Amino acid sequence: MLDIIEKYPILGAFGMTIYLTFFSAIGALVIGTILAVMRVSPVGVLRRLGSFYVNTVRNTPLTLILVLCSLGLLYILEINLADPKSPTSIVDNNIRWAIVGLAVYHAAFVCEALRSGVNTVPTGQAEAARSIGLTFGQSLREVILPQAFRGAIAPLGSVLIALTKNTTVASIIGVSEASGLMKEIIENETGGLPVFFVFALGFVILTLPVGVFFTSLSRRLAVKR
Amino acid sequence: MDELKPDQVDPSEDSSRPREPMVVIEGVNKHFGDLHVLRDINLTVGKGEVVVILGPSGSGKSTLCRAINRLETVESGTIAVDGNPLPEEGKPLAQLRADVGMVFQSFNLFAHKTIRDNVTLGPIKVRKKSKDEANALADRLLERVGVAEQAEKFPAQLSGGQQQRVAIARSLAMGPKVMLFDEPTSALDPEMVNEVLDVMVGLAKEGMTMIVVTHEMGFARKAADRVVFMADGQVVEVATPDEFFTNPRSDRAKDFLGKILTH
Question: What ipTM is given for this predicted complex?
């Protein structure tokens, strides 16, 4: 068993999982925040656009979105995210498109988590903000969103855990992250089950602390009312 | 702020309305679904005047108070503050709200900010004051309402009375032309009511224009220039506190006073 593990770059594969998670999480947080602001804005068009995005993306399988990124955008429309002349252009393109797909997909969930956070903020807070003369944007930035983020920490943690595990879907567009390597090992070597457990353990080690951390964070940062 | 001039204490001349108008409400109507909460309201509040709005619950007094800085929209009629009609939305409305202080029943201090930051937020973001200036202003105002020692704490660590006094300081920090109080003592424990009312009486004496929705008859007697009695969405009676409490003209007012003053 050990010799099998030593033969393959398992740590490197999990490194790729972490890399994908890290950058798509940042992307999802940014896009999701913008979507959440759109969904609570007083402008009807923005609200409808926001709900359209969330309803469409949330109800599309992630596999489909990643295949669209890879086949549709990269190979058919030839939108390159990496220098096509570089020797690693195929790998880089796959990784970057995977990050885009993952970010776009999870942004919908971040948006909904944030919106649930906005709902934890009493309306009186917004009224007080408006009544001292803050504009809509200022009220959001200074009063509503800071409290909404704190109220949304626990659900945001769940989204991050889901995102970590969903990076495995990137293997279908040729990104060599952990689950891709697992498939490779199981195909090449004997002893499928132990290999599976090693990788399962790897994901537990990645996500368990995230859950614990976010739970304690949400308790520590909770807004006392 | 100026001390109250003797001629302002006597509100009996109010019918001749010697003051410049600060808030002018004309022909205002509003429905909540089928309920006609504001029926053709007309009311003018002069500069430096303290108007107390009384009435049974559901009479529309809170809605009227909130309509003055457009936390509630109205369907018809106009509301003007210091000669400017309320803007519809956006920046002009925000600017007008900065000039109209509002104190809520449930305090609504910003829960994630310290007491001092609650007071400085408006001056910094809206009045574009420097942080130092705003802090100095906040400390002065917190001192004045008697919660200076609490400046570093968060709202949840303060008693209701202290929170409400901070809320008053937060409004004052904007240098408002008029202050609205929407049942400021209704959510307070009885022993904390007076500390808030004392601050309000102080403000009234200094000549602040105030519109106060309250059930505190003592405050109405002590500080009000005029009492506006509302019932079923209408202004039923406008009188000096003396007249209103000793000799109410309308049956609704007699009925109302009979119910609350018998204890």
Answer: 0.85
